Amino acid sequence: MKSNTAHSENLTMRVRHGEAGRPWFRTERYYHTNDGWWFLTREKTEEGPFVSQLEAESELYMYIQRVKQAQNFPLT
Length: 76
What we know:
The chain has one helix at 53-72; strands at 3-8, 11-16, 30-33, 36-40, 46-50. By secondary structure, the chain is α+β, with helices and mostly antiparallel strands. It starts with a strand and ends with a helix.
């Protein structure tokens, strides 16, 4: 994914290609604590801990696939 950089005073914010610079807050999806690596979801959950960032990235990919699958086959 390409990105552009928007400058505001002393703050540099990366924006996605094609998006206008906006004053919103975008957080990193992955973070590290003493317990290990975690990722945040759009559903506002924290998943982890994982041994490495690579493991957290792999688990996020699988999490997204499960969410997409659930959206295609809702329980009724």
